[in-house]
Amino acid sequence: MHPISRRRLLQGCAAAGALAVLEAGGGAVAGAASPPPHQWIGAGPFAHVYDPSTPGGRRYLNDHTLIKAAGRWHLFGITGAVAPPGRAPDSAAEVSFAHASAPDPSGPWTTHPDALTADPAYFGEEHLWAPHVIEAGGTYWMFYAAGGRSGAAINLATSTDLFTWTRVPGGPLFRGRVARDPMVVRIAGQWVMYYTELSGQDAGGGNGGGGRHVVAFRRSDDLVHWSEPGIAFTDATTEATVSVTESPFVVERGGWYYLFIGPRNGYDGTDVFASRNPFSFGLDGYAGHVPGHAVEVVTDGQEWHASAAGWFHQGLRLAPLQWRDVPPPWQSADNPVAGLDVDGRLTVFALDAGDGALLRRVQLGPQSDTWSPWESFGGPAGAVPTLGRNADGRLEVFSLDPGGAGLHHRVQRPDGGWYDWEVFGGAAGAAPAVARNADGRLEAFALGPGGTAIARRRQSSPGSLTWEPWDGGFGGPAGAPPVVAANADGRLEVFALAPGGEGIYHRWQETPNGPWAQWSRFGTAAGTAPRVSRDGSGRLTVAASAPSGPAAFSRRQTVPSGGWDDWQPVSGWTAGAPVLVPDADGRLEGFALSPGGSPLSHRRQVTSGGWDAADDFGEPGVRLAAPPTAVADATGRIHVFAVTTEGRLRTRVQARPGGWLPWSAFGDRPVAPVPSGSPVYWT
């Protein structure tokens, strides 16, 4: 039987354990004293530090490893030829490990000849994936995933100088269903290997099929002979979907073990889970997120760093790893955010790149293409704000304190000015989603710190400056901030991602302004928070990305305020759910950004609710930090705003429905290039 390729595992969703503990004592291996609560993990901005390209062509890095030896850092990683923009390379062609060294993880890096090349004569080795190198007993040990027609295998090569590697003569250390991405660490006097697997036959799960994506582990005394497998983490997703338990990495700190795995919340995403027991992690131990692919953790004993790579980045990236006492807040979907004010003028809010202060820029007239200068509006803030629009057109801005300490809001006056900022709520995990009820009252839905719950609050009366108390039991836990939209009959409907991306759920008002139905499953496993918009026919459309980001899909109501059609494809690789906005003739326009920030594709809804052919909507050579924001002005023309990875704001405006003017700069002030859906990094 042919093995499942890494490419198939990452693209499969487009088509579609047992607890083990140490034998001695059977419990957590940390000391008897109870440690303080686990810390929360975030990351600072990633900087590109190494390009593995050679005179022979542009190359990428994927799963990789870093090790320090004799005062110098060495990098080994999957490498291959860079694919055309927006397309993934063929992982079956990954047959060698890049090698480079540097005095510091930030560089400068020196490229060396590739460290190892696949050898089919060595027990059917056809590819080389995910090396992990450690030092023990004066020898360097490289564990890596290999295999081919003979099945998935974890292999071993050794070296005394990190340049010349020799495979052990006995062949694979073991085989598994899809065993790959090994990571080896010393725990309680034994070597422990964590690796990606599917539960089931030969993986410690007990059956021969229908397995779930897991992190398996084995133990060893000599690094050569390994125990039967156990399962350290079981995800809710199954082998019918894309793997979200890849690149496991385990770190011990302060009596807690932290498991880093991905791709989660997009291709460039790694979730972290904390546990006292290094052989038992769960979704309820969620401890943070790092916006990078195939993340490795590096420390010199003082500073901590996260390294990341991936098909779409052409090399190694490095970010400071942050250990926090409180959960880092999550970025809401839109960066920047824009809406019509009381005078019918578009108003754009963004965060200053330097200190996170709120900035505002206003259209000089409802039909004008000129704008006011950027001006300070408050802050600093912990996330790009969200907006609500009262029935009389007055904007209301909702902002999150740095670190998620509390919510604030600021209301526009009827004359176009603004009241002062006021406290709106306690600690939160993101700026709230806001929509207007059928009776004109705004309702806000806020994610709790760490995604523990979703709370709801509404205005006391339409346009009121006062609000009813929070309802802290509206929903949750959730894996991302919720989104909300109004049905054609005025009933609000909320959509939320389940923890770990297990599925999308929704809850709706049973009558306009009325009580809420119970949460109901709306879709299968998803990679990021969904988006929702209403088209000119009155029907809602929800867009979602698949786990790991190989595709995006949409689902439209059958009739306004009614049932739902089946999911249908919208785009290929995507960094998040596509942005949806209705144009002047009522048809939705969709914008999908590929991982790595380019290309940006665009599709237009057809009358039947499907989508026309995609076109390239972005600028040549420009990479975006996050999917764009799209909003219609008072004339019905759509304005698209996008933040580049350098923090420059760009805009593109419709000349007419279906026709677009070129991209142009939107002011010269740097704004924060915050990855959408990721914890905010500068707080």
UniProtKB/TrEMBL annotation:
* A Pfam entry, by short name: DUF8189
The answer to whether keyword Hydrolase applies is yes
Record keywords = Carbohydrate metabolism, Glycosidase, Hydrolase, Polysaccharide degradation, Xylan degradation
Region annotation Disordered: where it falls in the sequence: 544-566
Concerning CDD domains, the annotation shows: PLL_lectin
Question: Where does the entry annotate site (Important for catalytic activity, responsible for pKa modulation of the active site Glu and correct orientation of both the proton donor and substrate)?
Answer: 181
Give all residue intervals belonging to the PLL-like beta propeller domain: 342-667
Q: Which branch of life, at top level? A: Bacteria
Q: What family name appears in the similarity comment?
A: Belongs to the glycosyl hydrolase 43 family.
Q: What is this protein called?
A: Glycosyl hydrolase family 32
Organism of this sequence: Streptomyces klenkii
